[in-house]
TrEMBL record:
It catalyses: adenosine(34) in tRNA + H2O + H(+) = inosine(34) in tRNA + NH4(+). GO terms for molecular function: tRNA-specific adenosine-34 deaminase activity. CDD domains: nucleoside_deaminase (cd01285). Its EC number is 3.5.4.33. Residues 2-112 form the CMP/dCMP-type deaminase domain. InterPro entries: APOBEC/CMP_deaminase_Zn-bd (IPR016192), CMP_dCMP_dom (IPR002125), Cytidine_deaminase-like (IPR016193), tRNA_aden_deaminase (IPR028883). Keywords: Hydrolase, Metal-binding, tRNA processing, Zinc. This is tRNA-specific adenosine deaminase. PANTHER family: CYTOSINE DEAMINASE FAMILY MEMBER (PTHR11079), TRNA-SPECIFIC ADENOSINE DEAMINASE (PTHR11079:SF202). SUPFAM superfamilies: Cytidine deaminase-like. Its cofactor is Zn(2+).
Length: 146
């Protein structure tokens, strides 16, 4: 069975794609029963779409793959803590588990909700592995842009 570390490394591969394309480097994968069923990375600039976050792209891909709008048994691995928009989509997906690599003090859902969780009551939220690597990728991206 694959580990959280393995899946987060796959999400980091997606984040590096975003970085290479000049996007904020956030990547996501969705796993179900030991298999990655969806991947996504930020494509806001590429698609000229402010909703084209890694989580949103991965969610849409997972829904299409499964032919279902619910992901109760799935886990999302994302390199940065979700924003409020993505948290709302994750709520409606009823995803079983969310593992994020690094906190996002500026833009996470917590900026609007404080300590109140916007996720489905059955969703488990966990801080996972690869936090330093994820944060370093974001810091490098913004340092290059300044």
């Amino acid at each position: 069975m694959m580990t959280d570390e393995y899946y987060m490394q796959q999400a980091l591969k997606e984040a590096r794609k975003a970085f290479d394309e000049g996007e904020v480097p956030v990547g996501a994968v969705i796993a179900l029963n030991g298999v990655i069923i969806a991947k996504g990375y930020n494509q806001v600039e590429k698609l000229n779409d402010c909703t084209a976050h890694a989580e949103m792209i991965a969610l849409t891909s997972a829904f299409n793959y499964l032919g279902s709008k619910y992901l109760m048994e799935a886990t999302l691995y994302v390199t940065l803590e979700p924003c409020l928009m993505c948290a709302g989509a994750l709520y409606w997906s009823k995803i079983g588990r969310i593992v994020y690599a690094a906190a996002d003090e500026k833009n996470s859902y917590r900026r609007a909700t404080g300590n109140q969780s916007p996720f489905h009551p059955k969703t488990k939220l966990e801080l996972g592995p690869c936090g330093e690597e994820s944060l370093q990728l974001v810091k490098t991206f913004f340092a290059k842009r300044r």
